[in-house]
Amino acid sequence: MKLKKLxxxxxKKILAAFVFVVVSLELIICxxxxxxxxxxxxxxxxxxxxxxxxxxxxxxxxxxxxxPITVFxxxxxxxxxxxxxxxxxxxxxxxxxxxxxxxxYLMAATLIAGAxxxxxxxxxxxANKFRIAFELEYLKDPFYNTDKHIHLKIAERDSLEDxxxxxxxxxxRDIGSSVSLEKxxxxxxxxxxxxxxxxxxxxxxxxxxxxxxxxxILEDSEVITEGxxxxxxxxxxxxxxxxxxxxxxxxxxxxxxDYIRLQKSRGxxxxxxxxxxxxxxxxxxxxxxxxxxxxxxxxxxxxxQGTGFQIALGFVIAFAFIITFVLARAIAEANSMNTILAIxxxxxxxxxxxxxxxxxxxx
Length: 363
Description:
By secondary structure, the chain is α+β, with helices and mostly antiparallel strands. It is built from eleven helices and six strands.
C-alpha cells in the first residue's frame, strides 16, 4: 500500500511524540534515581566515571521497560491534540474510514514494537551486565548463598547420568560441604564418591575433593578407594552458586534459552523465573499494538472536557495496565497458574477493552 501525505503526517507526529515522552520520562526517572541513590554513592565512594556508566546503562533499560506505556501516552497526546483541532473530524469527513486512518498508527506500532523486541532481547541485556554488577557491588548488601541440600544433574552421556549433592556452598571461599557425586545408569547406581569438601581451584579451573571415598559397583563386586585429595573436572562452576538476583535481565535471548535448557537438564528449581522473563519479552511487543489501539480510540473523539481530560484518562489507563502487569508477573513467578497464560493476562484484558471501545469510535 502506497503511503499518502496523511499517513506520513500522522506517523511523524506519533514518532515525535513518542521520542518526547521517552526523553521526558527518562529525565524525571533519572533525577529521582539519582536522589535516591546519591547517599549510597557518597558512602561507598563510587568513582564518578562508574556512576556515569551506570546511568548510561540505566537509561536504555528504563526505556525498554516503559515502551508500551510511553507508546500509549504518545498516542493519546498526538490523537487528542488532532481531535481538539478538529483534524480527526476533517479526516473522517473527507471519506477516510476510521480503519484506514489507523494504518499510520499500525506502522508506528510495528516500528516501535520491532525495535523494542530487538533491544530488549539483544542490546539492553548486554548493557544490564554492567548495571546489575554495579548495583550488587555498591548498592546491595553482600551476597551469601543460604541454599541447603543442593542436588543437581551435571552431565548426561549415553545411558549414564551424573549427579552432585552438596549440603551447602560457601561463595566467599568457593567451598562446598558434605559432597556426593553419583553416576547412575537408569535407576542403578554404578559409581559414587563421598567427600567432606569440594573446593574450586582457580589456577587449574578444576574442583578438588578433600577426604574422599569412592565406591565403584561392578557386576558381582565393589571397589572402594579413598584418599585425602582428588582433582576432578565437573560441568559445574562457582558462578552456578553465585548471586542470581535479576540475572535474567543480563541475558540475551540466545543466552536465556541456553540457560533454561541447561537448568532444565539439571533439574534446577530456579528455571521458572527465567522462563517468565522469556515469555515477557515475547509478550511486550503485542502490548504496544493493544495500547496504541486503545490510545487512538479514547482520544479520537473531541470532548467538552478538552485535551487535558483525555491525556489524564490516558494516564489512568496506563496506570491500570502497569498494575495488571505487575500482578500478572507476580502470579507467573509464584507458579500458581499456567505461566504463559499468567503473562498474557494484561494483553488479554486490555485487548478485550480495545475491542469494546472500538464500537464507540466515530465512523
